[in-house]
Amino acid sequence: MCTVCMEVLKFPVQFESCGHRCCANCLPELLRTSAQCPIDGIPIDRNRQVCLR
């Protein structure tokens, strides 16, 4: 489940800092608004994400 839109993950991206995931389409908005994981508040580095397939 996406930590941003709370729907089934579409093109999942994993936050390297904490391991939580979001949809690739949700990531840009998340980085613009807070740049923190919505689950645990750990800062998200826009250059350190892992794309899962």
TrEMBL record:
The keyword Metal-binding applies. Residues 2-40 form the RING-type domain. GO terms for molecular function: zinc ion binding. SMART domains: RING. Pfam families: zf-C3HC4_2. Keywords: Metal-binding, Zinc, Zinc-finger. This is RING-type domain-containing protein.
